[in-house]
Amino acid sequence: QVQLVESGGGLVQAGGSLRLSCQASRGTFSSSGMGWFRQAPGKEREFVAMSWWSGLYTVYADSVKGRFTISRDNAKNTVYLQMNSLKPEDTAVYYCAASFSRSRLISDYNYWGQGTQVTVSS
């Protein structure tokens, strides 16, 4: 069982930045795809970004491309999401998740964190 713990959420003004962190409890992290998803109130959970195990393969949702950057430190079992130029529509609970495949699909992710709230004020 892999446990994922997110941190770094909070309240920020539009145009500001936040960095989310997600630490995994096991070493299998280094061979896993790691993704970030988000869920706004009243909306379905959606894909944000993912990084394959080497960190060289990354994919982003169109809505965050150019503003968000996913990175990982396999030595620390940690994946990050740097969020710049934040917009009110980025307000959501952000979840990290682990997968054994390169995927944007929620169903392909086997382990999930508890989520961290990001609120962007206008």
Q: Please outline the major beta sheet.
A: 7 strands, mixed
What ranges have pLDDT less than 50 throughout 5 or more consecutive residues?
A: none
What is the total tally of β strands?
11
Number of helices: 0
Average pLDDT over all residues:
93
How much helical structure, as a percent, in the residues? Answer: under 10%
Proportion of beta-strand residues? over 45%
Which structural class is indicated by helix and strand composition?
Answer: mainly beta
Encode the helix/strand succession as letters.
EEEEEEEEEEE
Radius of gyration: 13 Å
Summarize the structure.
The protein is mainly β and 122 residues long. It has no helices and eleven strands. Strands 2, 4, 5, 6, 9, 10 and 11 form a seven-stranded mixed sheet that branches.
Description of the molecule:
The protein is mainly beta and 122 residues long. 0% of the residues lie in helices and 50% in strands. It has no helices and eleven strands. The strands form two sheets. Strands 2, 4, 5, 6, 9, 10 and 11 form a seven-stranded mixed beta sheet that branches. A four-stranded antiparallel beta sheet has the order 1-3-8-7, with no helix packed on it. It is globular, with a radius of gyration of 13 Å. The relative contact order is 0.31. The mean pLDDT is 93.
